[in-house]
Hints:
CATH architecture of the largest domain in chain B: 2-Layer Sandwich
Largest sheet of chain A: 7 strands, mixed
Order of helices and strands of chain B: HEEEHEEEEEEHHHHH
Strand content of chain B: 15-25%
Number of strands of chain B: 9
Number of helices of chain B: 7
Number of domains of chain A: 5
Oligomer: heterodimer
Helix content of chain A: 40-55%
Shape of chain B: globular
CATH superfamily of the largest domain in chain B: Bira Bifunctional Protein, Domain 2
Shape of chain A: flat
Number of helices of chain A: 28
Largest interface: A-B, 73 and 71 residues
Strand content of chain A: 5-15%
Distance between the termini of chain B: 47 Å
Number of domains of chain B: 2
Amino acid sequence: MTDFLLELRSEEIPARMQAKARGDLEKLFGAQLSEAGLKAESITVYSTPRRLALIAKNLPDATEAVSEEAKGPPEGAPDQAVDGFCRKQGVTRDDLEVRDVKGRPTWFAVINRPGRATREVLAEAIPAIIRAFPWPKSQRWGEASISTESLRWVRPLSGIIALFGGEVVDMEIDGIKAGRETMGHRFMGQPSGVSQTVRAEPVELRTDRSETLRQAQGERPVILIDGVDDYAAKLRDAYVIIDHDERANIIRDGAAKAASDAGLSLVEDEGLVVENAGLTEWPVPLLGRFDESFLDVPEEVIQLSARSHQKYFVCTSPLPQAGGAGGGPEKVGKPTPNPSRKREGNLANAFVCTANLEASDGGKAVVEGNQKVLAARLSDAKFFWELDQKTPLAKHAKKLENIVFHEKLGTVADKVERVAKLARWLCEEGIVKSSPQVGEVAARSADGGGPDKEAPTPNPSPQGGGAILSKEKLADLAERAAKLCKADLVTEMVGEFPDLQGLMGGYYAEKEGLPQEVAGAIRDHYKPVGQGDEVPTAPVTVAVSLADKLDTISTLFASNNRPTGSKDPFALRRAAIGVASIVQINELRLSLIDAICQIIGDFDRAVTSAPADHSDRRGLKGQGDGSKNNPFVLYSVVETRSSVLAFFADRLKVQQKEAGVRHDLIDAVFALGGEDDLVRLLARVKALQSFMDSDDGANLLAGYKRAANILKQAGIESSPPVGEVAARSADGGGLDNEAPTPNPSPQGGGEPEEKALLSALDAAEPKAAIAIEAEKFEDAMSALASLRGAVDAFFDNVMVNDEDEAKRNFRLGLLARFRDAVHAVADFSKIEG
Amino acid sequence: MPQAIIIADAKDMPVVDGKANKGQPLNFQDMILTLHHFWADNGCVILQPYDLEMGAGTFHTATTLRALGPDPWNAAFVQPCRRPTDGRYGENPNRLQHYYQYQVILKPSPQNIQQLYLDSLVAIGIDPLLHDIRFVEDDWESPTLGAWGLGWEVWCDGMEVTQFTYFQQMGGFDCKPVAGELTYGLERLAMYIQGVDSVYDLDFGGAGVTYGDVFLENEKQMSTWNFEVADTETLFDLFKKATAECENCLDAKLPIPAYEQAVKASHIFNLLQARGVISVQERQKYMGDVRDLAKGSCEAWMEKNGWGEIAGAGEAA
């Protein structure tokens, strides 16, 4: 058993690719081993910016010898056949032997495959791994790149260590021979302590390759590795920490310490920890400062400047005391930070950068340099912040006329118009009401997990709990907010930091003195972004957010930009879940079909620029097709409407899965058709689910399935649409229904169980109908439950398929009525189990 | 503990009249001269700037056209860059509509190219044991030139001082072999080395002349012209004419003059952008036009040199 060490040294590997590269190396190596029939006791992989390494412990020294035999043609077969067999097996005739098979002499080839030395397996495996390595992007380099077939790697590959038990594995790929030499830290890795100096003699660029190599490394000591055991330690001596996790720990702890030493706390950011670990071989966290005056800029901007461009952590200072004694920056009049970011204290004028060396001056110059860079970035940001404010949002919004939303759907300005109209409509129809629908607290979508109890608006006075606005006033605010909600897309700041869309608009609206409701709606109208994000509850925000998402979904569906498979370039699935979350959390009673008609109707008119036509509009509101003149709309309004609805049903299943709602029950309610009110739909599904969990429900389902089977065999297929069934029968035993089922007349029902079922149905049907009308779905379920006893008794004691046709028809009629009564609540045929 | 490099050790320095040896930072022109010496000593031909307005050193024929084909090529030069939309009327300490790039192109990319580059930083006075020098992923793509490459932005204490790219394609052609391109931001580097916060405060030549003395007025006037004065009808007309002339040259199988017209068209397009008269939709179209001109020129260049048919390995080496 022997250990194996592999190091693939290269120029700097992008930080974001290192985690996957480690996984790929492990996987490819494992595959090569198992193909050869080898297995290591353990495989560990490491990465730094300049190397990928793998250590395999306790590999066998050779593969097992294998003896294989193959049966050939019988003795005496034509030469052709025997020769063919030999070719196929890669043997000569001399290697064949004759054996007896059921009394018949037959040729056999015996192939002894001796075990291969693991060293040889590795010598083939390493080049194979390198050539097959799935880098997201790779390149060619150097003289060999005269051919496009030359070796590719993420960046130029510069050296390979391959040691099997301390012996170099004899392999070479594109002129790079495996050895035992490696390099330490790019600058500190000189054990002598003497740094390289500029060569007095110039390097010839055009010399022989190995000569160039020798010269390039002339003054750079090479580290010789003996094997697995001294690898990490020798690198550590040369200022390289090979283990990425150890570097991450150093950064995590060191950054926190740097902050706390300055009396501050670090804003934790695991993504940055990992990224910095991928950018360093010898990480040294250092604290720097920036001018306090930059704290006027919204802190999200500061954090983004520091993070995305510079990979810096930011810090907070303790919350300022009432008297401002803490010396913290003056924050009076500033909006409270974005509630989605949880942290204690205000942003401090400090950052932590991660250097890749222990500088000779203790990091003073490094910190000074980084401070300068951040200051330049922040002064750019401050410039944008101040410049953007010189133009009112309404004027910024004008520029949206030049930005295409989608080539078939006009500009962003066109979209904004539609959203504003729909937002107004949502308020005027009373769908979004002024009073806070749920409360002042921003709820979380889906699981309601986070204990996030901050107000959803930047203003200390919670808007949700503010004065009740008139319907008109609310509609005005919603329209106004909608018209401005995309204006920040053309500001300098959002141009620089696209992630700040919405947020910057909210800040600028506040600075402009627009109403808090408007500013809040501009800021939060993109929410919720994905599950777990905050769901807006402030009425104006709700109206704008809902209108924006519904518009996106409907218009992109109408123009055939629907998600397919894994492709959802416009994030329509996320938008649909957003709509569903907003509707549920705020308990909005919204007919999706009405809303879609509002949008597609307007959209049709807008893009066709046809003169307003009232008859057409009425048609749209109903089931007419206003798209016939519109070259951009590929689908009719009716088609769009039903496909959007089906899309919502699918999304709802996904969304509700985590909440434990059964998808088949959602189907069972959706299958009733016509249900486009998500709140009502879910209430019904939930009532159904708890009913199905009860004995009554389970038994009723069993009875239903039995009845449905019998009816199916009798050729009595599905019943008329629901709703009507219950209403029709609610006339107190009048059994003159026109369903294509036999008419159960009283004289046909002589058995007590028949009578009992009939009267149970007479009692249950109107109860269920009334309950459904009143949206008391539990009551509807109990009405159905009351049928259980009668149904069970009926099946136990009555033979449906009686020889007497009248009796049979009556009984089938009873079952059909029972099935229809159940369908009034849900399509039980969709329910599993 | 590692020790600081002693830059003042005269015998290690390329000859720049000794100024840098007194522990004093290099002035702007000495920095350029130092880089010239360094790269000349390392086998590069030192070229002068291309006499056309261009957005980046990459547009210089010594980079674009010479990156194509099998012939070895090592060159270094300063190229003034025009970025009309970056003008700030001389009011922003970091942003200019006209600035300098120092460009090095090494084809094929030498095995020790990173070390050569780092040595050049030491030559201009950056001590890698005192400063944090890092290669951070930054791939390069120029749709205009039909070109892309992989590489890094080089950070010095968090500041991007150089773009480092291994060209993989140029003008839509695979680079065979691959060239390494180094683009130093000269003003940034100089500000760093000299420790000044405004580009206009840079010591230009060590004789009391600042960068502002040389260029501040230019920035003011050119910003005004770029943003406010340039006659857009004339510009549209010039764009059309450059396009037509490029095609004329291509018909005559003259790739270099054709390429010059493509570079002109590109700059005029940038001016039109600064004047804010190109809508988002039109922008795509104009960029497509310039790309077609540049790619056409590269194709003609390949053809003229008989490289159009190079299929694979060795053949042309």
